What does this fold into?
Amino acid sequence: MDEITFHTRLHRPGTLVDVGAHDGLITVPLARLPGSRVLAFEPLPPAMARLRAALGDAHPNVECIAAALGDQAGEITLAMPVLDGVAQEQWASTAKDYAAHLSARVDVQRFAVPVQRLDDHTIADLTGLKVDAEGAEYEILRGARATLLRCRPVITLEVEERHREGSTWSVPAYLDALGYDVLFELGGAWHPMSALDRATMQRASPDPAVFEASDPYVFVFYALPREHAPAMLARLQAAA
It folds into this structure.
């Protein structure tokens, strides 16, 4: 199971939000779903430029928003490591700074970017939410609390201990309090969050110069509104 397949299988017409849209890997497939409107949030300027270029005029149902999401509106620092002179855009984060990993190989580039709350967009028909924010997931969900309670979208999240220690506990706990079941898929089987063995499934280096991770490495999680979770899970399992 991947995020695009998940959102496709459980798609309902309405608004889809892509947080950390980068250059449109998931934004574009979401925009192709029938009856969809997509809000694509991307705070990193070069990534936003590529996203706009990738969309062109072919996807008028996508609104690109050059901002991060969080639990307070204003401005925030986005830190991006640079490894051997190459920007590591996939590691850009508003939740962490890479100063501890500075070395002859690693530098850090920082951007002052706008930060918004999803709740302030007053979306009435949110049906799907994808979050990829390198440690900022908890604040993003806090800033979306009213929207999640009102709209009950399905959610995909990338959550990694290497980006924020304790996040694989705090993020699912917050969603649980909002009435969501959080699951992960491994080898074709679906598992509750309680089955995640962090020592063997979530071990990875926080240093952008060290490419080390456990096998398997489980970092994509799926959240279903509890009142619809059995039926939705059955659809996902039948599709598999």
